Amino acid sequence: MRIVDEYDPNLPLDHASTIPASWYVNKELYEAELKSVFSNTWQLAARVDQVAQPGQYVTTDVAGEPIVVVRGNDGVLRAFFNVCRHHAAAVMTEPQGNAAQLRCPYHGWTYSLEGELKGTPDFSGVCDFDRARNGLVPVEMLEWENWVFVKLQSSEFSFTTDLTNEIGTLNLGGLHWFERRHYHFDCNWKVFVDNYLDGGYHVPYLHKGLDSVLDYSQYMIENGEIHCLQWSPMVSDGAEAQTGAVRKGDRALYYWIYPNFMINVYDGVMDTNLVVPRGVDQTEVIFDFYFPDVTSNEARARNKASVEVGQRIQDEDTAICKSVQRGLTSRAYNAGRLSVRREAGEHLFHRLLHADLSTSAE
Ligand code: FES
Ligand SMILES: [Fe+2]
Fold it and tell me: 107 C-alpha vs ligand 1 centroid, how far in Å?
């Protein structure tokens, strides 16, 4: 992993460069990220509202591995590798649902909602097979705010007290899930994260609508240990109509939590972004939109309009992310310098990545 050492994490921001271009295109580094960065950190697996009742489950994949989150008959929420102990098929195959038991579609092995192996058709006479030791393999799980996170391997990584306190003050429990959208980007996942963490640098150029409601000169960047808060006061004078109608309040808060989760909060609106690597130059970003009122007709129309503004902003980012990915493969580019005023968040991201990748390469 020679290319990991090409980055110097000790340079202060005013001397630092980005991580090298090879980190965005190299397949071995990509595999190493799945095994370290995406396996050592809390990864969003479900929303709490999806698994509120016994029997409700959600399937997902984390670092390429299948996961199921399910609430047991005892009311306890658990997460497992969604991998049958027989011949490894995915036990649950729907994205979410309600089940009395977890039955594998391949040969019908059945697990309880608590993960114990209960039924094994045509399996008598198999020697030294202990059913009790062949339950679904559990995964570390954490319920935090509106979400369920999993961590594939044990590590030092935790959500810091700073972060949990800050997010705690936002009272996100009063917001309800409204809609999910999936966006596809032709770039490495880090291109999307860098774009998010540039301290609003690209906003006046790329997002004219959004720019009209933010006070760009006042944009603040505050790094924590494993998160970055970017925030901006909002203005209503001169706001572009479509954006101004749905992006109100005093402040816009943009939280990024290492490595790939973002929480964006405006007055009475929240969206979260989960950045999922789908290949070295392919990225899926899953957006969940939340609002205080998701039932009344009037609110639903307003919520829809808000989601559409979000869609427009993503569309504006799609082309630039693709353009950056292409440039990163050019022989003319290796790394770029960082704006001291704007790009402290990217600097934190790159240093945390380096730390993860260099420990896993040891
Ligand atoms: S793989 Fe699940 S029952 Fe055979
Ligand atoms: Fe953007």
Answer: 5
Angle at 302 between CA 185 and CA 196, to 5 degrees: 30
DSSP string, 44-70: EEEEGGGG-STTEEEEEEETTEEEEEE
How many Cα atoms within 13 Å fall on the side-chain side of residue 211?
11
CA distance 184 to 278: 9
What residues does ligand 1 touch, defined as CB less than 6 Å away? 84, 86-87, 89, 104, 106-109
Least confident of 22-26, 186-190, 356-360: 356-360
Question: In angstroms, what is the span from residue 206 Cα to ligand 2's centroid?
Answer: 7
pTM for this one? 0.95
CA 151 to chain centre: 13
pLDDT tens digits, 45-98: 999 999 999 999 999 999 999 999 999 999 999 999 999 999 999 999 999 999
CB 223 within 8 A of CB 348: yes
Neighbours of ion ligand 2 (CB under 5 A): 317
Q: Which atom of ligand 1 is nearest to the CA of 107?
A: 3
Q: What band does 225 get if pLDDT is binned at 50, 70 and 90?
A: very high
Task: Point out the ligand nearest to the CA of residue 87.
Answer: 1
Q: Rounded to 5 degrees, what are φ and ψ at 129?
A: -115, 115
Find the 112 Cα to ligand 1 centroid distance in Å. 15
Bridge-based pairing state of the strands 77-81 and 110-111: unpaired
